[in-house]
Specification:
Layout lengths: L9 E6 L4 E4 L2 E3 L6 H12 L3 E6 L11 E4 L3 H11 L5 E4 L6 E3 L18 E3 L3 H10 L8 E8 L3 H11 L4 E6 L11 E8 L2 E10 H21 L1
Parallel strand pairs: 1-4, 1-6, 4-5, 6-9, 9-10
Antiparallel strand pairs: 2-3, 7-8, 10-11, 11-12
The structure holds ligand PMT.
């Protein structure tokens, strides 16, 4: 048997949802279980990659055989991702990052005072955008292969291609999270993979583990093509 297909590759995967604290006992989060990101990280490990998994809040048990960095907020995930970029060859951003966080984080548990409460939110950095911008400034030989996700509920292809171009990804995995058997928390997923030239492959409903294997087949083929150029 020859070397495994991702032998020698340093793969960074983000998984799970971020937690945006309101006060010491309350936070804003989302329904990401981490299953999709974990499946991608495990498949990469099995293909011989050296894997770093950066994960937020998750329901599933964390995989073994890789370096795991636990974070809570989008700001922490941003720092963890950006500081690992120089040691990364491929990045897969399956995490569901909160776009906004509370502007003020209360030091003490908030008290009930009025009938209505307005929470002021402020924008979080877009980590994938920062990765794409960082990558654009690297020499060709040092460039990462960037795989983003796009969770959409309508006009999936249009939004996915827009995210691919804006965030400077090599591939984008579009997830119609409104479809049954796809998206947050489920055992299965349904995705369409896009590159700059358009649809690469539609992956019909299958387990997240099987989706992860197909994603790596597609990514490996494209990385090999880039290396041959
Ligand atoms: O964890 P599971 O329960 O298995 O569910 C899997 C999943 C539905 C979470 C996953 O398949 C998925 O779609 N992940 C991306 C969710 C998401 O945040 O999508 P988005 O369209 O909002 O963001 C687009 C891309 O930008 C994503 O790669 C995201 O990680 C990234 N992003 C978004 C906002 C932000 N502030 N920083 C980012 O890096």
């Amino acid at each position: 048997v020859g070397p495994k297909p991702l032998q020698g590759k340093r793969v960074l995967v983000t998984a799970g949802g971020t937690i945006e604290r309101i006060d010491p006992v309350r936070y804003i989060t989302n329904d990401s279980s981490g299953k999709m990101g974990f499946a991608i990280a495990e498949a990469a490990r099995n293909r011989g990659a050296e894997v770093t998994l950066i994960c937020g809040r998750t329901d599933a048990a964390a995989p073994n055989g890789m370096r795991i960095v636990r974070v809570d907020s989008a700001l922490q995930m941003y720092d963890a991702v950006m500081s690992n970029l120089p040691n990364t060859d491929v990045i897969v951003k399956a995490a569901a990052v909160a776009d906004y966080r509370p502007l003020h984080q209360e030091e003490h548990k908030m008290k009930k005072t009025s009938e209505a409460l307005t929470l002021e939110l402020t924008r979080n950095p877009d980590i994938l955008q920062a990765v794409g911008d960082w990558n654009a400034d690297q020499l060709d030989a040092d460039k990462l292969f960037v795989i983003g996700f796009a969770a959409e509920t309508m006009d999936v292809e249009k939004h996915a291609l827009d995210k691919l171009n804006r965030k400077k990804c090599d591939l984008i995995v579009a997830n119609n999270v409104a479809a049954a058997g796809a998206g947050f928390g489920t055992e299965t997923n349904i995705v369409s993979v896009y590159a700059s030239e358009g649809l690469v492959e539609h992956i019909p409903q299958m387990t997240k583990k099987a989706v992860a294997e197909r994603l790596w087949d597609i990514a490996q083929a494209r990385m090999n093509r880039l290396n041959d150029q």
